[in-house]
């Protein structure tokens, strides 16, 4: 089982969107034994942003409400995927990569309009696709 945790600042937009996008994309690609979660470095138990939820629903992903989760303990058996290189520097784990390492950084849509959130979701999809491709390639090499 591979555990992957997406991490951003508040866990109300990008990381939670990445988690939900990854869950569906992995299911579509029939990638099993991967568990996805998300957290925020400074999360305060806030709801997923309204525009993030609406964007997820519009694009066919799970848009249900959820409270943000603070990243507290770094676990040795989890791969952390940081949204930005700054987030990556703040995560004390050797098992951490950033979207920049995959397919490119994702800009913060917090407080922006729906178009910005949709652009953000498309950037996240590209990164998740690159991550899932890596997982498939590694498994195929066994």
Descriptive tags:
142 residues; alpha/beta; Rossmann fold; four-stranded parallel beta sheet; 4 strands
Count of runs of 4 or more consecutive helical residues: 5
Strands, count: 4
Q: In percent, how much strand structure appears in the residues? A: 15-25%
- CATH architecture descriptor: 3-Layer(aba) Sandwich
The major pleated sheet works out as:
4 strands, parallel
Strand order of the largest sheet: 2-1-3-4
Give the terminus-to-terminus CA distance.
15 Å
The figure for the number of domains is: 1
Level-1 CATH class name: Alpha Beta
Structural class by helix and strand composition: alpha/beta
Shape: globular
Description:
The chain is of the alpha/beta class and 142 residues long. It is 43% helix and 15% strand. It is built from five helices and four strands, in the order βαβαβαβαα. The protein has a four-stranded parallel sheet with strand order 2-1-3-4. Helix 1 links the parallel strand 1 (2-8) and strand 2. Helix 1 crosses helix 5 and helix 2 crosses helix 5 (114-140). The radius of gyration is 14 Å and the shape is globular.
């Amino acid at each position: 089982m591979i555990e992957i945790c997406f991490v951003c600042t508040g866990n109300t937009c990008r990381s939670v969107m990445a988690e939900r996008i990854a869950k569906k994309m992995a299911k579509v690609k029939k990638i099993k034994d991967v568990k996805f979660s998300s957290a925020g470095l400074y999360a305060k138990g806030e709801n997923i942003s309204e525009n993030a939820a609406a964007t997820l629903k519009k694009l066919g992903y799970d848009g249900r409400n959820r409270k943000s989760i603070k990243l507290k303990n770094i676990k040795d058996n989890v791969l952390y995927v940081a949204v930005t290189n700054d987030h990556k520097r703040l995560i004390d784990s050797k098992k951490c990569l950033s979207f920049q390492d995959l397919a490119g950084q994702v800009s913060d849509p917090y407080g922006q309009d729906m178009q910005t959130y949709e652009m953000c979701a498309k950037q996240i999809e590209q990164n998740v696709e690159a991550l899932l491709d890596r997982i498939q390639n590694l498994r195929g090499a066994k």
